Amino acid sequence: MRNPIETRFIVDTNVGHLVRKLRMLGYDTLFINPVDDADLVQTADREERVVISGDRRLFDRKLIRSGRVKGVLIDTDQDHHTQLQLIVRTFGCGDGGSFIRCLECNTLFLSKSKEAARERVPPYVYETIAQYAYCPHCDQFFWEGEHVKRMRALIEKLKNESAPPA
Ligand SMILES: [Zn+2]
Based on CB atoms within 10 Å of each CB, which residue in 1, 48, 55, 99 is the most buried? Predict the structure, then answer.
């Protein structure tokens, strides 16, 4: 398993659609819903997380204004892909795409052998897939199906788009 990226996020409820995408990219991404503004910023401070929010007023809070807590203001009028691009361009996406983190709960996957997955995945999957990712929190096995391939394609696209012009 590769090292997770160092930047950690906390995502506000107004841009909750970014959560799974950021986890997919490998970022440690916390999402609390519902959350009030004070809790959001305090959690960011305590856990050294960058705040991602579409709420301009949040950025007037002292902890953010003073620079103690970092934040990214998302323009919620932009499409979701453009919003994600902004984050990737700002923070990079490291080893993203290595499928290291559960999209549902943010826990790092453990890698599991075919035998460990035998009773837990459909037979046709067991027949064709040799390596599995396991989320100990959700108690679920995951594997490289079409969904993951689409995710990887999206990640490649984001990486290319965020590369500096030659
Ligand atoms: Zn999980």
Answer: 99
